């Protein structure tokens, strides 16, 4: 391949005879045997660079007026003259006090010297040298391109005749307002320490450190410094210790904002959990607060306190009381505390808030139910064989490559290959995902194992069928677990309906395998054991009744339903005689993930809702109170928002609205606190294992603050 001759090729890499890649943006372009298309593409870069450079020169107070961007079609590599009319020649550019970017570079050296002298006079030579260097380089490239294009277009032009002709130039365009030197210097000064732009950029970097769990010393990295120099050359990056000091100031500011906000919130739900940091073997207590901001459920990390004493109920209770005092939160504001079922945790909640405010974590209970199945001796051999195959595939790069190749060759994945998933002991649903992925890739896995003598034994046809049916039994439980893990919306009012639908889904499972039917029965028995009395829990029952999507259609125990209705009536009566009352309710903010059309977990609920709505339409009895009217109305669609519903009907159901709104903050699980420690694990890494507990707490708190709150 002969070397390219045109000067345009200095900005492109030739891929083949018809394709070239731009060195600036790496875009592939068709050359088709000439450079016209390449020159047109490069001109786009030059126009952008010229506009940016012109803006930068004005900002840095050169005092230059806007350059004339329009040129005559035959004016190739020419410059403007100080006269209003010029003679165009191919070799000698004309001059004008308004120089284009191209003309600036091609002007005599004395012009450059004058420009640079003017820059030194304004004390901004350091900031503007880079602009001039870029201008000269871009101007040189522009001249090359224009000359190359001119050679192609004007091969037969008689320049001697052209030079004898006088062509008037169009009057140059000028900006109506040009920043003064004073304004330009003021802008430059704002990037120095203490300036407004310097402070704003520093805040953005601090937000980046907190939000993305980055080490403080990341600001000293070569890549970060190059990025900041490219984005804002005038900004001097502070030392990491400066960011630590500013973090303390920012924490105090945000804490005071949240402290004032929480003081006005009448109802708060707490979740907390404990976590051990393995690198230095430290224990931490994480506490998260949940409350309503308008129609939105908000959460914030109140504390991540290191525990220096044994994790007894008394010690945990003492820490909780200190945290509430630190945030000036009263115990009357706490409507519920959601934790796991650990004896020490339950004891701490009972001592600090009373037994009636403790709410067991729904997700932990579901995990205990699922473990009965995953640890069953009837299916352990199947799980062990699948687990061995997954470990073998993950240890071998060759096996993994073969699995990917088979998927691509057989078009099993539409160009996206999948990997086998290995389960973990702490999350039962990982076992479900392991079986699900194994079933998807069983054909590819079988092909690899057959041709590998060192492979573990493959499941037999009967075992593969059993693994598939075990997955079917676990699917409803997996849906419930995933649904309960919602943090951005409240889940407590969905617990009774979900358990009811879960039992219905399991009852409808049929199989010819005795093992599968035995597992189904064992699972139903465990659900009854764990959730048999849930309708007598006022947190759950009252919140379900006040959720317009469910009301009383999922109650299986009429006595529990009637007691909950009576309880609501008593609260309404007390509200009429008192400005405030305590009740137990928590309709949820739904955010139901779309399931596959083949699988509808909520099918049983829809059947009940349809029957209830038909019954409501036939009701003719006289209605004499808010609760009766509310319960007699049809249930809302499953994808509707309970909060929006209550806002719309609060003028009609005033007492019920006050009761419902007082518990919309209650979440169904302590998962938010567990996620806090997932963030903590990402914060206390090998690079940050010397963080103090106070600094860790501030980092996690600020990481929970939204962008609007941070920069508002």
TrEMBL record:
Residue stretches of biased makeup (Low complexity): 78-94
Organism of provenance: Psylliodes chrysocephalus
Record keywords: DNA-binding, Metal-binding, Nucleus, Transcription, Transcription regulation, Zinc, Zinc-finger
PANTHER family the record matches: ZINC FINGER BED DOMAIN-CONTAINING PROTEIN 39, ZINC FINGER BED DOMAIN-CONTAINING PROTEIN 4
Cellular location(s): Nucleus
Occurrences of domain BED-type (ranges): 3-52
Record-level GO BP terms: post-embryonic development
A GO term, aspect molecular function: zinc ion binding
Name this polypeptide is given: BED-type domain-containing protein
Bias (Basic and acidic residues): 64-76
Top-level taxon of the source organism: Eukaryota
Key word Membrane present: no
Any one GO CC term of the record: nucleus
Sequence segments annotated as region (Disordered): 49-96
Chief localization: nucleus
Positions with biased composition (Polar residues): 51-63
């Amino acid at each position: 391949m002969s070397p390219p001759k045109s000067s345009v090729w200095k900005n492109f890499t030739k891929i083949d005879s018809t394709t070239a890649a731009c060195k600036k943006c790496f875009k592939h372009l068709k050359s088709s045997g000439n450079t016209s298309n390449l020159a047109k593409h490069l001109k786009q870069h030059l126009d952008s660079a010229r506009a940016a450079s012109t803006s930068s020169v004005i900002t840095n107070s050169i005092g230059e007026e806007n350059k004339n961007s329009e040129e005559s079609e035959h004016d190739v590599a020419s410059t403007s003259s100080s006269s209003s009319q010029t003679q165009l020649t191919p070799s000698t550019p004309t001059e004008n006090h308004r120089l284009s970017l191209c003309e600036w570079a091609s002007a005599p050296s004395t012009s450059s010297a004058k420009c640079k002298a003017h820059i030194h006079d304004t004390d901004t030579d350091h900031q503007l040298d880079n602009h001039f260097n870029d201008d000269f380089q871009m101007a040189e490239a522009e001249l090359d391109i224009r000359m190359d294009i001119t050679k192609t277009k004007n091969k037969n032009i008689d320049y001697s005749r052209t030079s004898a002709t006088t062509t008037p130039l169009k009057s140059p365009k000028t900006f109506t307002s040009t920043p003064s030197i004073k304004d330009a210097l003021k802008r430059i000064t704002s990037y120095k320490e203490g300036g407004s732009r310097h402070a704003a950029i520093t805040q953005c970097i601090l937000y980046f450190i907190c939000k993305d769990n980055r080490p403080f010393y990341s600001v000293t990295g070569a890549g970060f410094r190059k990025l900041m120099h490219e984005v804002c050359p005038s900004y001097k990056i502070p030392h990491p210790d400066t960011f630590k000091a500013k973090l303390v100031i920012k924490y105090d500011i945000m804490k005071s904002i949240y402290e004032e906000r929480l003081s006005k919130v009448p109802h708060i739900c707490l979740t907390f959990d404990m976590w051990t940091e393995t690198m230095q073997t430290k224990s931490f207590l994480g506490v998260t607060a949940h409350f309503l901001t308008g129609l939105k459920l908000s959460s914030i990390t109140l504390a991540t306190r290191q525990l220096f004493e044994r994790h007894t109920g008394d010690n945990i209770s003492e820490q909780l009381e200190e945290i509430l005092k630190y945030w000036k939160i009263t115990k009357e504001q706490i409507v519920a505390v959601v934790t796991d079922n650990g004896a020490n945790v339950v004891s701490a909640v009972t001592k600090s808030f009373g037994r009636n405010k403790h709410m067991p974590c729904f997700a932990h209970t579901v995990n205990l139910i699922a473990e009965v199945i995953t640890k069953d001796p009837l299916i352990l051999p199947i799980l062990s064989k699948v687990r061995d195959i997954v470990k073998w595939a993950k240890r071998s790069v060759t096996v993994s490559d073969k699995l990917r190749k088979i998927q691509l060759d057989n078009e099993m994945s539409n160009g996206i290959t999948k990997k086998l998933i290995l389960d973990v002991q702490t999350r039962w649903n990982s076992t479900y995902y392991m079986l699900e992925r194994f079933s998807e890739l069983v054909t590819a896995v079988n092909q690899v194992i057959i041709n590998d003598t060192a492979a573990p034994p493959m499941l037999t046809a009967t075992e593969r069928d059993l693994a598939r049916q075990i997955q079917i039994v676990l699917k409803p439980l997996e849906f419930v677990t995933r649904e309960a893990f919602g943090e951005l919306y409240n889940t407590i009012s969905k617990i009774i309906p979900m358990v009811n639908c879960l039992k219905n889904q399991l009852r409808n499972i049929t199989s010819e395998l005795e093992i599968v039917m035995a597992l189904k029965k064992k699972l139903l028995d465990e659900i009854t054991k764990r959730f048999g009395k849930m309708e007598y829990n006022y947190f759950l029952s009252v919140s379900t009744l006040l959720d317009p999507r469910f009301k009383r259609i999922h109650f299986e125990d009429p006595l529990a339903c009637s007691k909950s209705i009576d309880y609501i009536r008593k609260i309404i009566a007390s509200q009429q005689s008192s400005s405030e009352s305590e009740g137990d309710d928590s309709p949820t903010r739904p955010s139901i993930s779309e399931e596959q059309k083949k699988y509808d977990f909520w099918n049983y609920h829809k059947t009940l809702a349809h029957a209830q709505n038909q019954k409501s339409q036939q009701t003719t009895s006289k209605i004499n109170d808010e609760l009766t009217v509310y319960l007699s109305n049809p249930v809302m669609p499953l994808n509707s928002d309970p909060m929006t519903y209550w806002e719309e009907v609060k003028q009609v159901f005033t007492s019920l609205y006050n009761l419902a709104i007082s518990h919309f903050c209650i979440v169904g699980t302590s998962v938010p606190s567990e996620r806090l420690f997932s963030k903590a694990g990402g914060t206390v890494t090998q690079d940050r294992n010397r963080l103090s507990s106070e600094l860790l707490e501030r980092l996690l708190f600020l990481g929970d603050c939204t962008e609007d709150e941070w920069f508002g």
